[in-house]
Design goal:
- This protein is of the alpha+beta class.
- The chain is built from 19 helices and 53 strands.
- The strands form ten sheets. It has a 20-stranded antiparallel beta sheet, sandwiched between helices. Strands 23-53-52-51 form a four-stranded antiparallel beta sheet, with no helix packed on it. A four-stranded antiparallel beta sheet has the order 24-25-26-27, with no helix packed on it.
């Protein structure tokens, strides 16, 4: 099979859609039911209709996809025609409220377009000529051909003339004079009434645009675009005689059409899937990153599908030879293809073309061990865990036309997938990518695109625009190639991908078409500024108040230099520190900045100047960042330092009450503080499972001891009420995943929320909006948010990748926090809203740590992130 199947199928739709939008802006929009269709020549491969009213104008205003696809030259032409003629009084009054139909007619080396616009009455062509001539425009009108049936509109500002005629109250216009002449000639074949009735079988008033596809004409349309014969998917669709009607779903950054495809025949390959039920698409998760295209099939009833395939093979005269081959296989290898192999095939298979033009196939299997035993009996071993089938056409017999080109492929087995190719080098590269987790589905572009697609389907065609760009360009005819590659004039490179999905529906298909456009002004696409850090970012950037009207950013690089930046990315000052900042940087009530490294405690003003007594050398290495107690000028600083707590006053002097306090175990994370019934508590938890409650003078109030087996690797979180000591506590999770609450009244409770690995992360913070913090777990590539009891799941997200570091929490509105997560293998960053939805624009590539939030007291949010090139990027959202 040629995997131009996907490239050709989606490309021709791309060009068609381009032309759709081209003409849409040309005309305005309006309505009538059948009248415009009756003048369209029968060789139309695709039709588009939309209303000519102000509602459509408002919907499409500023829609960048139009200009991206049409190109600057055509877009200017059409805007000129629209503003100078079609929006002028005489014309707009005659066509107001009508439905405009565009039809596309393939010729040998071009695609001609016809526009049919119903008028409110039958105005003679000569009347239209006179009214447009009378307008004060730069257009020059002349009659075309003999008589006064068609006229020509030309202008030095237009790249080509437009031809216009009128028949039975319908304006007919095109840049091809011969097409207008055929539309006006009653002796020329037109669309049949049956086709018109099928096209108009549904009400289209609730959609801005409707697309009609004539399956039989798609092959010739694709042939117009391509230098070679169109690929197999176009042939399959063209052989599935019938038509599709797709309605546009408006999305500012994507073309989205959905509808139905009806079939006039069920005796070809693609039609077999119209009787299948849609299947959840999981195989896409193992498609490699460098995939240019893929064609994915989902099978709900394999016996029914295979019976249809067998009938097709029999009708082609191929079945008898295959049956004899299978008899010989059973005789020599003791393997029955029908009884041993076919029942082990799973619900999905795919054909993938890579960016280097190599082709790969993947089939899901039901029982990987059982399948391995069967397939190896009819295969030959090759190095590196690869095999080759001993017999030809087994895959073609199993799954039909898409696998016909894999006659005797090499293959390997990975998990529940049978992966095959016609050469071993393709399999080696797939194995390496798969082992390293380099999959298309784990990239941010695909994750964003996949949100558009249906989760279930029977046939999915996907084209990755960048990976497939060279193959597409080389297969197009020169004129179309020039348009496709002309980034300065057209916007095709701005599309991320195209896809087309078919889902079986009792003998017909539900159909969906998607094309996502990468808008340079979309969130997270274009940085507002960058700053050269000279090293990797090692701590989350933080934003603080600089003066009464502005804020500033603190960010530390791997060189241990701390940079102070304005919110526009300009350096204010920098400071060389002896090591990484531990924990959070704090801004105190007097605007001074407090931060901790393992060796020193710093306090300086917003200009970077140290305050008296600072920085000071710590007598014991700090294990986390300091906290500060402030009350009416009383400032006390507490630093966790292994099995000690170091305490200082505002001048950096040691507080005497803390010098002899030794803890059992080491403090690994931050201290917590709370004031309850006039006692100010400082709370510390050690890795040995003990929790200590001190007052701020260093007096031990009580200690909650662990059971001797408990180990803590997660921070404690505070839940307190100033007047309710009995219900106030700190909470954490031990390495067994057990939740432990340590109460200020010297008791503890234990709760289990599920099976956790010893390396899971736990935090408790306000996510959902009330004063009670939610419980946040990350483990085995999954984020799980529970309510405070631990009994009810608020939301959950499976990343399909290991999580690199602890989640980061970013302040949001009303005391709530957003959750930020970074995955390691694919270097993706995620930020979640309180309901578990991703903030629009995420995921995005980048490294942890990072910052997401406002840079000023109000306004838009920004992502501050390191991309691995020693720079800090600021992306507006």
């Amino acid at each position: 099979m040629k995997t131009t199947i996907i490239i050709t199928s989606v490309l021709f739709l791309a060009v068609i859609i381009a032309s759709v939008f081209y003409f849409r802006d040309l005309n305005g929009d309006r309505q009538s039911r059948r009248k415009p269709f009756t003048h369209i020549p029968e060789d139309a491969a695709l039709l588009v209709s939309f209303r000519n009213d102000e509602t459509s104008d408002r919907i499409f205003a500023g829609y960048k996809l139009f200009e991206a696809i049409l190109g600057d030259t055509q877009f200017r032409d059409l805007k000129l025609l629209r503003s100078n003629i079609l929006k002028q009084g005489p014309v707009i009054s005659a066509t107001g409220g009508q439905e405009i139909v565009l039809s596309f007619h393939p010729e040998k080396s071009r695609i001609d377009y016809l526009m049919a616009v119903p008028m409110d009455a039958d105005h003679p062509t000569a009347t239209l000529f006179d009214e447009i001539s009378a307008m004060d425009t730069s257009f020059h009108l002349t009659w075309a051909g003999t008589g006064q049936e068609r006229f020509r509109i030309a202008s030095r500002n237009l790249s080509r003339p437009l031809f216009v005629g009128q028949r039975d109250g319908v304006i007919l216009a095109s840049f091809a004079d011969t097409l207008v002449a055929r539309a006006m000639d009653k002796g020329q074949p037109k669309l049949s009434m049956q086709a018109i009735e099928q096209f108009r079988s549904e009400d289209n008033k609730n959609t801005p645009m409707t697309l009609y596809l004539n399956h039989r004409r798609l092959y010739s349309l694709a042939g117009t675009l391509m230098q070679r014969a169109p690929g197999d998917f176009i042939q399959l669709l063209a052989e599935t005689a019938g038509q599709s009607m797709l309605k546009m779903n408006f999305n500012s950054n994507a073309l989205m059409f959905s509808g139905t495809s009806s079939l006039d025949t069920t005796t070809n390959y693609l039609a077999l899937y119209s009787r299948q039920q849609p299947v959840e698409q999981l195989l896409k998760n193992v498609v490699p990153t460098d995939a240019a295209t893929y064609l994915l099939f989902g099978v709900s009833d394999f016996p029914a599908l295979h019976q249809g395939i067998a009938d097709l093979l029999d009708s082609r005269g191929e079945m008898a030879q295959m049956s004899e081959q299978h008899r010989l296989i059973q005789e020599r290898s003791k393997v029955s293809i029908a009884d041993d192999l076919l029942p082990l095939w799973g619900n999905e298979f795919a054909v993938i073309e890579l960016a280097n033009r190599e082709t790969l196939g993947i089939i899901e299997v039901k029982d990987s061990l059982g399948f391995a035993r069967v397939i190896q009996q009819i295969s030959t071993d090759y190095p590196e865990n690869m095999y080759r089938l001993n017999h030809s056409n087994l895959l073609y017999y199993s799954f039909g036309d898409p696998l016909r080109s894999f006659t005797r492929p090499y293959f390997l087995l990975t998990g529940n997938y049978f992966v095959f190719a016609n050469n071993t080098s393709t399999l080696r590269r797939f194995a390496a990518d798969n082992a390293d987790g380099r999959t298309l589905a784990s990239t941010p572009g695909y994750l964003n695109f996949d949100r558009l697609q249906a989760n279930k389907a029977n046939v999915s065609v996907f084209v990755h625009n960048e990976n497939a760009a060279n193959a597409i360009a080389q297969r197009l005819k020169p004129a179309f190639r020039a348009a496709y590659t002309a980034a300065d004039d057209f916007g095709y490179p701005g599309f991320y991908a195209w896809s087309f999905q078919l889902s079986g529906a009792s003998g017909r298909f539900f159909s969906n078409f998607y094309a996502r456009y990468i808008d340079d002004e979309a969130p997270g696409v274009t940085p507002e500024w960058t700053f050269d850090l000279g090293g990797r970012l090692v701590a989350p950037p933080m934003v603080f108040q600089y003066d009464d009207t502005s804020r500033f950013i603190l960010a530390q690089a791997s060189s241990d230099i701390l940079y102070a930046l304005s919110t526009s990315g300009k350096q204010l000052w920098n400071a060389q520190l002896p090591g990484p900042v531990l924990g959070d940087i704090l801004q105190l009530a007097d605007s001074s900045i407090l931060l901790t490294t393992a060796e020193r405690l710093y306090r300086f003003d917003v200009h970077g100047d140290p305050l008296p007594g600072f920085s000071l050398e710590l007598p014991h290495r700090a294990s986390y960042g300091a906290i500060a107690y402030e009350n009416d000028g009383d400032l006390r600083l507490f630093v966790p330092a292994g099995n000690r707590i170091l305490a200082y006053d505002a001048k950096g002097k040691t507080l005497s009450g803390w010098t002899n306090q030794m803890l059992k175990g080491d403090i690994q994370y931050g201290l917590k503080q709370a004031t309850l019934q006039d006692i100010h508590y400082v709370v510390a938890a050690t890795d040995a499972g003990n929790v200590y409650f001190f007052n701020y003078n260093g007096q031990l109030i009580h200690r909650n001891e662990g059971d001797g087996h408990t180990v803590f690797r997660n921070p404690i979180a505070l839940q307190s009420s100033p007047e309710a000591v009995a219900s106030s506590y700190v909470i954490t999770s031990d390495t067994a995943g057990v939740l432990k609450r340590f109460y200020f009244e010297n008791r503890q409770s234990v709760d289990t929320t599920g099976n956790r690995s010893a390396n899971h992360y736990f935090d408790a913070i306000n996510i959902a909006g009330d004063t009670v913090p939610e419980l946040v777990f990350t483990d085995r590539g999954e984020l799980s948010i529970y309510d405070n009891t631990g009994d009810n799941l608020v939301y959950q997200y499976d990343f399909g990748q290991d999580i690199e570091n602890r989640p980061i929490f970013f302040p949001a509105a009303a005391g709530k926090y957003r959750v930020g997560v970074a995955t390691s293998a694919n270097q993706l960053l995620y930020v979640f809203n309180e309901d578990g939805t991703l903030v629009p624009g995420f995921p995005i590539t980048g490294l942890s740590p990072f910052y997401f939030g406002t840079l000023q007291d109000a306004g838009r949010s920004y992502l501050l992130v390191d991309k691995g090139d020693r720079k800090l990027y600021a992306y507006p959202f």
